[in-house]
Amino acid sequence: MAFRKRFAPRRKFCRFCADKDLPLDYKRADILRDFVTERGKIIARRITGTCAHHQRLLTREIKRARQMALLIYTATHDSSVKKKSMI
Ligand SMILES: [Zn+2]
Question: Which UniProt keywords apply (predicted)?
Answer without folding.
Answer: Ribonucleoprotein, Ribosomal protein, RNA-binding, rRNA-binding
